[in-house]
Amino acid sequence: RGHLRKEDFQAVRELSMNPVGDRIIGSFFSPGQETVDFPSFVQVLAHFRHTENDRIRDGAEKEPANSTARRLKFVFQLYDQDRDGKISRAELLQVLREMLGMQVTEEQLQSIAERAIQEANQEANQDKDDAISFDAFRKSMEKVNIDHKMSIRFLE
Asked: Coiled-coil region(s) at which residues (predicted)?
């Protein structure tokens, strides 16, 4: 009582049908953790809160979880499953398989992953690498309206 289990999240239709739903669910839990309490649940959920551009913040306030920077870090960590600070080719391929499933061939997946890694590193002016650093990820996401794509409006 007072705690949520992974099974509770999996019972939510929108999460169970989402191709990366297991990754989203996993973001609520620390490694080895079987349940999540309410404060921890709200802390992760805050990443999806609609951004209020006109909100005034004083300099001492901690950056909110729904800031663009914190959202990008959250999404990056959904990909970076081993938490080594970069999205490896294998991690990217796993996400692509989860999202695209049987719609594309393994050869097409490899090609998509190769191109994504090259483009991200090129935009960040980084040396050729077989992974995407957070800096390269952040730069490649500059044209994406992450605030809109990651917002859930509650009780409006």
From this structure: none
Would you give the distance in Å from CA 77 to the centre of its chain?
6
Q: Which of helix, strand or coil describes residue 70?
A: helix
d(CA 99, CA 78): 13
pLDDT score recorded for residue 154? 55
pLDDT of 25-47, one tens digit each?
Answer: 999 998 889 999 999 999 888 88
Supply the CATH classification number for the domain 68-156.
1.10.238.10
3-state secondary structure of 44: helix
Round to whole Å and give the CA distance between 156 and 154: 6
* Number of C-beta neighbours around residue 125 at 10 A: 9
User: What's the rounded Cα separation, in Å, for the pair 50 and 146?
Assistant: 11
Concatenated DSSP letters of 2-25:
-EEEHHHHHTSHHHHHSTTHHHHH
Cα distance between residue 4 and residue 26, in whole Å: 12
Separation between Cα atoms, residue 66 and residue 22, nearest integer Å: 21
- Asked whether the beta carbons of 87 and 80 are under 8 A apart, the reply is yes
Coil, strand or helix at 87 = strand
Q: Is the pLDDT of residue 71 over 50?
A: yes
